[in-house]
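User: Hey, quick favor. My workstation is busy. Could you predict this chain's structure for me?
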Amino acid sequence: MLIRNPKFFYIFLTISALFLFTGCQLLRPMISDMKIGTEVDEETMEITKKADTFSGKTDTIYASILLKNAPENTELEATWTREGREISEKSTISTSGTRYIAFNMQKPSENFRSGKYAVKIKIKGTDKELSKEFEIK
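Assistant: No problem, here it is.
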């Protein structure tokens, strides 16, 4: 077979290699813009009242991230810790697309204990994760 236009052939070869080496998926899911606060917009799931220090009497603490380019059934997992120890079961959300996702931690019956806390949100099955530290006084 004669290749009449070598430039076209190399472009075709490059695109084919991209599909082959990326599992036929040119866009990978990404997370960014992590925020913590006490209020979240119910429609967009974006934090509307940011904070990094909370009272032990705070009812709910939210953490949100911006998820981009997520294929069907992309799983996000949130882990909440206090002083480096996990304090609740991991929360998992399965979703797709580009949008904000929010996780929350509810106040225990006897209020939050004071200390250094953190929340980590990751895309399951990948090395993509974000974490944010906060304090309860």
